[in-house]
Automatic annotation (TrEMBL):
GO cellular component: cytoplasm
Protein name (database record): tRNA N6-adenosine threonylcarbamoyltransferase
Similarity comment text for this entry: Belongs to the KAE1 / TsaD family.
Known catalytic reactions: L-threonylcarbamoyladenylate + adenosine(37) in tRNA = N(6)-L-threonylcarbamoyladenosine(37) in tRNA + AMP + H(+)
Amino-acid positions noted as binding substrate in the UniProt annotation, renumbered to this chain: L135, V136, S137, G138, G139, D168, G181, E185, N271
Binding site for Fe cation: H112, H116, D299
Encoding gene per record: tsaD
Length: 330
């Protein structure tokens, strides 16, 4: 059994967790920064980085206290090394390096996307490689065949915006504020998802890629027309995203008969309408559907600790000279 400390600071969540190789989450803490960024309608990178400086060390001390352990008890320190907002990534990675050096433990530089990609295995011990993953977050929208730790085949990506970005931009133009995804989902409950005709970009195309920029512009035009209520706009937008995600995933599932399961991860996977639609799609392909619990879908330290545990078990560690990477495809 090994115990890993995981640190996450690549966007607007400051988080740390202690997770062991038996999938026990001994402690986890997350501090969001909604109040810091809300006045600007989106994440301001420098404000995020400064907030991580203030919050990360107390959060690390907090999870050690919650779990009743010290740095001497852990086996390695895992920290997000990218991709993400570089100032924040540097805060977490340098903190991880300092802790690893001080405790004389190995450092594991984790790709944030690998954190999302492997998090379903933390939640579900039965989930075996290879599985088809729909990774939908604020910065990414990809379909990946997850074949093993560090072993990914990317089937599709977005040609413009990520799905979460589309939610955030739509929320902003509908005056729903930040963070956008949960706000759109909430307002959509009171709307008619068929009220506003909106495009489904790339639906029907042979490659399972995504595109959301045109959808966002169409919502902007529909909103400007004044003909629709905000709940109808939100519900119709959400339904268009659902239809795109389902259609694109359908193509990928058809191309990957070897997949043991259909898995969704990333912040947008917290959306109930999206989860319901993807559950139905998996059933049509006779695949188990796996979605981590909501708190594990949005950014957190446990997914980084778990990716660290998987890499550690595979004998992969990094030296203290490892660089932070704003861009880092899986
Ligand atoms: O994975 P995540 O926490 O951070 C990134 O790595 O990007 O994802 C954040 C994204 C944001 O765009 C947020 O609006 C979206 O996930 N999101 C949602 C919901 N909750 C979070 N989108 C739709 N519905 C939700 N309930
Ligand atoms: Zn993320």
């Amino acid at each position: 059994m090994t115990l890993i400390l995981g640190l996450e600071s690549s966007c607007d969540e400051t988080a740390a967790a202690l997770v062991d190789s038996d999938r026990r989450i001994l402690a986890h803490r997350v501090a969001g920064q909604e109040a810091d960024h809300a006045p600007y309608g989106g994440v301001v990178p420098e404000i995020a980085a400064r907030a991580h400086v203030v919050r990360l060390a107390p959060i690390v001390a907090g999870v050690l206290k919650d779990a009743g352990v010290t740095l001497a008890d852990i086996d390695a320190v895992a920290a997000t090394a990218g991709p993400g907002l570089i100032g924040g990534v540097m805060v977490g990675l340098v903190t991880g390096k300092a802790l690893a050096h001080a405790a004389n433990k190995p450092l594991i530089a984790v790709n944030h996307l690998e954190g999302h990609a492997l998090s379903p295995r933390l939640a579900d011990p039965a989930l075996e490689f290879p599985y088809l993953l729909l990774l939908v977050s604020g910065g990414h929208c990809q379909l990946l065949l997850v074949k093993g730790v560090g072993d990914y085949r990317r089937l599709a990506t977005t040609i413009d915006d990520a799905a979460g970005e589309a939610f955030d931009k739509t929320a902003k133009l509908l005056g729903l504020g930040y963070p956008g995804g949960p706000a759109v989902e909430r307002v959509a409950r009171d709307g008619n998802r068929q009220a506003v005709p909106l495009p489904r970009p790339l639906v029907g195309s042979a490659e399972p890629h995504f595109s959301f920029a045109g959808l966002k512009s169409a919502v902007a035009r529909a909103a400007a027309s004044g003909a629709h209520s905000v709940p109808d706009l939100a519900a119709s937008f959400q339904q268009a995203v659902v239809d795109c995600l389902v259609d694109r995933s359908r193509i990928a599932l058809g191309a990957c008969p070897e997949a043991t399961a259909f898995v969704v991860a990333g912040g947008v996977a917290a959306n109930g309408a999206i989860r319901d639609a993807l559950t139905g799609l998996a059933a049509r392909f006779d695949k188990p559907f796996v979605a981590p619990p909501l708190w594990l879908c949005t950014d957190n330290g446990a997914m980084i600790a778990w990716a660290g545990a998987e890499r550690f078990a595979a004998g992969i560690t990094d030296d203290l000279g490892v660089a932070a990477r704003p861009r880092w495809p899986l």
